[in-house]
Amino acid sequence: MPKAQSSEAVRLLIDNHRQFLGFLERRVGSRALAEDILQDAFVRGIDKLDALRSDESAVAWFYRLLRNAVIDHRRRSSVTDRKLEAFALELTLHNEPEEHTQRAICQCVGALAGSLKPEYAEALRLIEVEGLMVKEFAERAGISSANAAVRVFRAREALRKQVSRSCGSCAEHGCLDCTCSTAVAQGDGEPTAHA
Hints:
By secondary structure, this protein is mainly alpha-helical. The chain is about 75% helix and about 0% strand. The chain is built from eleven helices and no strands. α6 crosses α9 and α8 packs across α9. The radius of gyration is 27 Å and the shape is elongated. It starts with a helix and ends in a 9-residue tail after the last helix.
């Protein structure tokens, strides 16, 4: 496409910005997401204007580009949703540890869990300690099962980091002879084991 036609095509695309944004917003249901998709499409589209045939409308060509961008977004979202749902299902199938393992959990872990963000501490308390299913936790917290699964995952990661900072290499190697001061101070003076 000649440079003059390319400049005219860019002007047409800019002039139709509001229509493009409305088109996207109706399809993705979010103004912010529509703006992100449109900005990305402009960046990719401007580089491809040379491929535009001289008899082809730049606006019609750009609408095709936007439709493809929406399809790509939905595919990525669908894959993410499926992965989160699979993770949530995995958490719901979580088996309780054996009684002796449950008793062997270091008391310091409970204290460290209380130092996490309140929503993380609550998620761990309800799911790990009280045995609430992820789906039930999601309903109680007023969030989706996928969001609940993510919250539990992040809470576990945050707790793992806290235990690692507090107990050092003991936590990293999964030792079963916890002698950290928190465990001894909170217990009856007898060291307990890390989970």
